[in-house]
Design a protein that fits this description.
By secondary structure, the protein is an alpha/beta fold. The protein has two domains: 7-246, TIM Barrel, CATH 3.20.20.70; 255-329. The protein has helices at residues 24-32, 45-49, 53-57, 77-89, 104-107, 119-132, 152-161, 185-191, 209-219, 236-246, 255-272, 277-289, 297-303, 309-322, and strands at 2-3, 6-7, 13-15, 38-39, 43-44, 68-73, 94-99, 137-142, 166-170, 200-203, 223-226. The strands form two sheets. Strands 3, 4, 5, 6, 7, 8, 9, 10 and 11 form a nine-stranded parallel sheet that branches.
C-alpha cells in the first residue's frame, strides 16, 4: 500500500490521532512496536494561523516517528488552507483532514464530524487544501452524522474526485460518539466500490490480533487504524503483525518490559511537556500498563494521584519488585 510516494507495506497498521495521547513520546513508542504510520494530535487551524503555542508545538516531528501525518481541523476554508500550508512546512509525509472528531465543542462549530452535515462544504474545503499543498492529502471521517444519514459511500467518491490520496473511515456515526459497536459493513462497501481506487483504511474496535485479521480478510481494507486500544498497550501493533504473519498469538509482555516501558514513556513525555501536564497525560497509560495486577488498588491509586516524578519512579520499581511473582496477571 502506498500513500503518495510513501510505501507502507502490506496490511499496514496506523496509530490514530488522539488528543493528549499521540504526542512525540507515544508516537515513537508505537513506532518501536511496529506502527507503520503515526499521526500528530489533531491541530486547530485557528490555533496554527494565530501561532498559538499549543498548536505550533504539535507540529514538532522527530525522524524516529516517520512516516507521519499532521492532522488539522477547522470549519473555515481559508483558515484550513493556510493551516495546511503551515503544517506542510513542518515536513510530514502527508496532511490529514479531521472530518471525524465527534466532540461537541468541535462538531457543533461545524468542524470535525460536524462537517458531515454540510457535504458540499466538506468537498469544497478538501478540494482547496489539495490544490494548496504539494503533499498528499488524506481524510479521516465517519459513516455519517446519524443513523438516518450514513452517506459515507457518496462522500468517499466525492472526496476521491477532488484528489485525496486515501480515506480513513471510523465505523460509527457522529451521533454514536464511541458507543455501540463499530459497523464495518459500510467501510467494506466503500472499499469494494469499483469507482474507489484510493486506499481505504478502516477504524473502530480493533482491540485484538484476531479482530484485525478478520477485518482485513472479510472487508478487504488496505490498512487498519487503531486508537483507544493502544493506550497503555502500544505492543498491540507487534501482536497484530505477528498474528498476521504466523497465525500465532504472542504472549503478553512481561512485568520487566512493562515497567521499563512505563519509565521510558514518562521520561520521554517529560522532555516534551512542561510542569505537571506530562504526568496528567501519562496517567491513562500508567493505569493500563498494569491492568490486571492482583491486589493493586492501593498502589494504583498512589500511581495515579501523585505529581512527584521521583515518587512515580519509585512506585514503578516497587511494582517490578513486588509483582514479579504474578506473571499470570499480565
Amino acid at each position: 500500500m502506498k500513500i503518495g510516494d510513501t510505501y507502507l507495506g502490506d496490511s499496514p497498521l496506523f496509530l490514530a490521532p488522539m488528543e493528549d495521547i499521540t504526542d512525540p513520546s507515544f508516537r515513537s513508542i508505537c513506532k518501536q512496536y511496529g506502527a507503520d504510520m503515526v499521526y500528530t494530535e489533531f491541530v486547530s487551524s485557528d490555533g496554527l494561523i494565530r501561532e498559538g503555542a499549543k498548536s505550533v508545538r504539535k507540529l514538532k516531528i522527530n525522524d524516529s516517528e516517520r512516516p507521519i501525518g499532521i492532522q488539522i481541523y477547522g470549519h473555515i476554508i481559508e483558515s484550513m488552507v493556510e493551516a495546511a500550508r503551515i503544517a506542510e512546512s513542518a515536513g510530514p509525509e502527508l496532511i490529514d483532514i479531521n472530518f471525524g472528531c465527534p466532540v461537541k465543542k468541535i462538531a457543533n462549530r461545524g468542524a470535525g464530524s460536524g462537517m458531515m452535515r454540510n457535504i458540499s462544504l466538506m468537498v469544497e474545503m478538501t478540494d482547496a487544501i489539495v490544490k494548496a499543498v504539494k503533499l498528499p492529502v488524506t481524510v479521516k471521517t465517519r459513516l455519517g452524522w446519524d443513523e438516518e444519514n450514513k452517506n459515507i459511500p457518496e462522500i468517499a467518491e466525492r472526496l476521491q474526485d477532488v484528489g485525496i490520496a486515501a480515506i480513513t473511515i471510523h465505523g460509527r456515526t457522529r451521533s454514536q460518539m464511541y458507543r455501540g459497536d463499530a459497523d464495518w459493513s459500510l467501510i467494506g462497501e466503500v472499499k469494494n466500490n469499483p469507482r474507489i481506487t484510493i486506499p481505504v483504511i478502516g477504524n473502530g474496535d480493533i482491540s485484538s490480533p484476531e479482530r484485525a485479521e478478520y477485518v482485513f480478510r472479510h472487508y478487504g481494507v488496505d490498512g487498519i487504524m487503531i486508537g483507544r486500544a493502544t493506550v497503555g498497550r502500544p505492543w498491540i501493533f507487534r501482536d497484530i503483525k505477528h498474528y498476521l504473519e504466523t497465525g500465532e498469538l504472542l504472549p503478553g509482555p512481561g512485568l520487566d518490559e512493562k515497567v521499563d516501558l512505563a519509565i521510558f514513556h514518562l521520561k520521554k513525555s517529560l522532555e516534551h511537556k512542561e510542569g505537571n501536564r506530562a504526568i496528567y497525560e501519562m496517567r491513562r497509560h500508567l493505569s493500563n500498563y498494569f491492568k490486571g495486577l492482583p491486589h493493586f488498588k492501593e498502589t494504583r491509586l498512589k500511581l495515579l494521584t501523585t505529581l512527584d516524578v521521583d515518587e512515580i519512579l519509585c512506585l514503578l520499581e516497587y511494582i517490578r519488585k513486588n509483582w514479579s511473582d504474578h506473571p499470570e496477571s499480565l
